[in-house]
Amino acid sequence: MITKRERPKAIRLSDAAAERIREIMANGEGKYEGVRVGVRNGGCAGMSYTMDYAEGVAPLEEVVEDKGVKVFIDPKAILFLIGMEVDFVREKLGARFVFNNPNQTAACGCGESVSITPAKVD
Fold first, then answer.
1. Which residue range forms the structural domain that includes residue 51?
2. Is the pLDDT confidence value at 37 over 90?
3. What is the mean pLDDT of the chain?
4. 59: Cβ–Cβ under 8 A, 6 or more apart, which residues?
5. Structural domains of the chain, count
6. What is the structure's pLDDT at 29?
7. pLDDT surpasses 70 at 30
């Protein structure tokens, strides 16, 4: 009998990120299906991460379900985000989502933009 192995997830969520996203989604009164993650050009290092509410899947998007949360990945960003973990940290002066991306090569001093190289797909 052949056992089908689960395909690795393009993006993973830490327990803290999944919990925070579930809290946010609960306040959305069922309007949103998950979060959409991507990148956009801009900033002093070249690119910035994006994270928005997602009401549904857009054409060609990758959909990852991790820890009970749906993450929709912009098709233009998938090669830049493969292997990334989204975390949520609480600090003395606030809280924020953190993108731990193995494809990130640099970040600007303010932390708002990054340099990312596309993942090598074997």
1. 11-116
2. yes
3. 86
4. 75
5. 1
6. 81
7. yes
